[in-house]
Design a protein that fits this description.
The complex is a heterodimer. Chain A is an alpha/beta fold. Chain A folds into three domains: 53 residues, no CATH class; 257 residues, 3-Layer(aba) Sandwich (Aspartate Aminotransferase, domain 2); 126 residues, Aspartate Aminotransferase, domain 1. Chain A is built from 16 helices and twelve strands. In chain A, α5 packs parallel to α12, α6 packs across α7 and α12 crosses α14. In chain B, the strands form two sheets. Chain B has a six-stranded antiparallel beta sheet with strand order 1-2-3-9-8-5. Chain B has a three-stranded antiparallel beta sheet with strand order 4-6-7. Chain B is an alpha+beta fold. Chain B contains four helices and nine strands. Classes of the chains: A alpha/beta, B alpha+beta. The interface between A and B is small, with 10 and 10 residues.
Chain lengths: 476, 124
Amino acid sequence: MEKLLNELSSQCKPAYSVKCDVEINAEIPENLKRKSNLGLPNVAENDLLRHFTNLSRRNYALSTVFYPLGSCTMKYNPLINERIAKIDAFNDIHPYQPVESMQGVLEIVYELEKDLCEIVGMDSFSLQQAAGAHGEFAGLLVIAKYFKSIKQKRTKIIVPDSAHGTNPASITFAGFEIVPLKSEADGSISLEKLKEVLIPEVAAMMLTVPNTLGVFEKNITEISKLVHDNGSLLYYDGANLNAVMGIVRPGDMGFDVMHINLHKTFSTPHGGGGPGSGPIGVKSFLGSFLPVPRIEKRKNKYVLNYRKSKSIGKMKAFFGNFSVILKAYVYVKALGGKGLKNVSKQAVLNANYMLAKFKDKINVPAGSRCMHEFVLSPKAILENDVRTLDVAKRLLDYGYYAPTVYFPLIVDEAIMIEPTETESKDTLDKFIDVVNKIILEEAIEDPQKLKNAPVNTPVTRLNEVEAARKPILKWQ
Amino acid sequence: MNIPQDLLYTKTHEWVKVEENKVKIGITDFAQHEITDVVHVELPEVGRGIKKEQPAAVVESVKSAFDIYAPVSGKIVEVNDKVLGSPELVNSSPYENGYLFVIEVSDEKELNDLLKADDYKNLI
């Protein structure tokens, strides 16, 4: 393990000096003056350089290896995005500048709103939200405001149990009650079960298409009709949009509100915490509820319109995470309509190729076809108390980042794999071989090897349970 | 798998021990094994009214967080504070020291809907 800077700190003579070449005249009251020294680590410049360089060599990144986590966490971010985002004209701008002096920035936001409308079949978009869950929250606030405006009291939102955990969290945060809906083995919705929970108090139903098991909801037209006949709205969680771009549009399927994760589907790096961007799109009858300011085009000038009396208000400072918006804009413009369609086709092809290689060996609860991702359930094969977690740990020994495990919750010992569109057949083959070797050979012949894994990493198996039960949150 | 004969069970893997007009509730041995090591527990407020099948507590493991549902309607009259500081009790003693809360039953007929030990065994 690389030591912390505090541990590297030397007791010898100061390794650094801080000089101030400006005389400070400000009179600082005695009681505000620091009495002790700063306590900064005492590390010489070259040691500091080595420390950070050594750490950087431990980086695990898409630029060095394959990530089976897919667009959910990190898909390939074209370097052109970064080059454009580095341009001074974007970096030196300040959001408090007069609107006339940042027409270019506003044009990009405005244009991307229009492009997203076309891609997903919605009428208006707001790019303010900082992430997917923030988008869900904003979308649900729009739904709440809409029903208030037509004087209907609707307090419940239906969400299938295969949904992402953010859905129920956003529902609660937005002041609604959750109506859970048990999904079928492949994550799809049973129309009969849906009818049972579609009561007059239901404001909306949230749905992820394709669902978290990588299955397209074949009854979507009927679901849409049932929901709308009940006077409720349909919300599209865009987490899996990478599977359907240019092929089907949520707006055409009957969805009224949706969010997109620009940082997933439209590239831009976000693994490790962001920043993200979660635009929401709505059909025209909901447009007036979108967050302010709206960017509008008047006589070839872009203006900010705050005067929207029905708006849910402001969701985020300024225009949202502009650097993410900019990179998504570059991604859309560089690929164009045809390119985006190819992204989805290739992502689905890659996932099906992998699934075909696994399906006869490892249980696949959702069947032998998938969209952009699929879920394995090795429970029946694993013996000797070996679990999916051990398989994931063993993958680290082979130099792979582990895929998502134990999600979705409706699949026992789930391993979720999403290869994305940019990986070659050779990369996929190598990964498939390693997963098969671990589950079908090592787990049976030498289970202890999996229990001890990882052994080739800078640190070996960490005690996750102790870390969660008794966390040490500061350096001591 | 330990499934005591004298308890009642739910499809969502809670066990129920009937003590006069009160029921003690926890998660089954099967459930604690499936969700693996419990790292955090959230308990309901004492005095709170609750309806059958409403989420009453949350048990979080290294895998995920799981809602624990009220098997019957009534009022929460006691919670097991010990599992807050020692969540591992849910794993080591699911039927005794790792119980979660006690409900004062408002409709004893609801107890008839719960599963007997053998039925629960067949379920899992």
